[in-house]
Amino acid sequence: MVQHRPGGDAGAPTMRDVAARAQVSAMTVSRVLKDDSRVSEATRERVLSAVDALGYRRNETARRLRLGGSGMIGLVVTNLANPFYSRLALGVQEVAYEHGLRVLLSNTAEQVDRERGLVEDLAARQVDGMIVVPAGGSHRHLAPAALRGMPIVLASRPPAGMDADCVLVDDFDGAEEATGRLIEDGHRRIGFLGNPPALYTGAERFRGYWAAHEAAGLAPDERHVRRGLVDVPTAERAALDLLRGTDAPTALFCTNNRLTQGAIRAVRALGVPVALAGFDDFDLADVLGLPLTIVSYDADEIGRRACQMLIDRINAGPGTPLPARRTVVPTQVIRYGTDPR
């Protein structure tokens, strides 16, 4: 049994514990963990058996701190008022905590200049790396070369003008499937409420909306498309305008939870039977009594994957050549309520 060590974690096994159990030196344990070819197979198996029995985990954070790391990472998002980003932050914090890292959180409000300032400030504080949900159409100021080699991972939006690891949502397929469900329900006039088209998510979700129509042999009506919406009030006004118009849509597709909530307000105000579909699940969506088709995904998982990618970069050390990686979090469509038609 591993005893409590003063100044350490109760019960946390060390390399010396592994060495004692395997009856080898700590140096031999280190060589096994580094996959050193000079260690015999019999010794390797004995050491790995001791590692498994004790539940030993190499303390990469301690090693990093000894090499001059800060033990902190930065997280820069675009809108803390959006529940998506709070869930993403929780996912980042979960993995960071497991590795003994602290997270410094900042908000850009989709302003590139503010993002530049925050990133420069975090770099000046010598954080070990950064996770950024980027604003704007060019991300060259986020390239490691511009940040003195600091590791960086992008979340929710892919890199533009530079190479970097990134974690994305399956925006296109989610939008196509949700719009397709509305078409299967018999809707032929489906309005679109979208965030700014310059945003990757807005462009991909519009592309999915359009592709679902084309797959069904339909042509979306441009009069029913509203893009560039940024919050609940702008979405509500756009939905009211669409639903009061001639030949109004019988359904609306919205590209994020805030726009869906704006559409719900408009539908409630007018009292019209309109089916709604949108990206991002949200609290109480299941008890509203409205026909809702929601594209859901694990926002925490985006944060978890991004943080693990960043830790991989940090642990690899400066100058280690690793190709840029991209991973996509899948979506699923959830149906709430019933179609009123």
Automatic annotation (TrEMBL):
InterPro entries: HTH_LacI (IPR000843), Lambda_DNA-bd_dom_sf (IPR010982), Peripla_BP/Lac1_sug-bd_dom (IPR001761), Peripla_BP_I (IPR028082)
GO molecular function: DNA-binding transcription factor activity; transcription cis-regulatory region binding
Alphabetical list of PROSITE patterns matching this protein: HTH_LACI_1, HTH_LACI_2
Listed SMART domains: HTH_LACI
Domain of life: Bacteria
Record key words, sorted: DNA-binding, Transcription, Transcription regulation
Limits of the HTH lacI-type domain: 13-67
Pfam families found in the cross-reference section: LacI, Peripla_BP_1
Protein name, entry field: LacI family transcriptional regulator
Organism of this sequence: Streptomyces aurantiacus
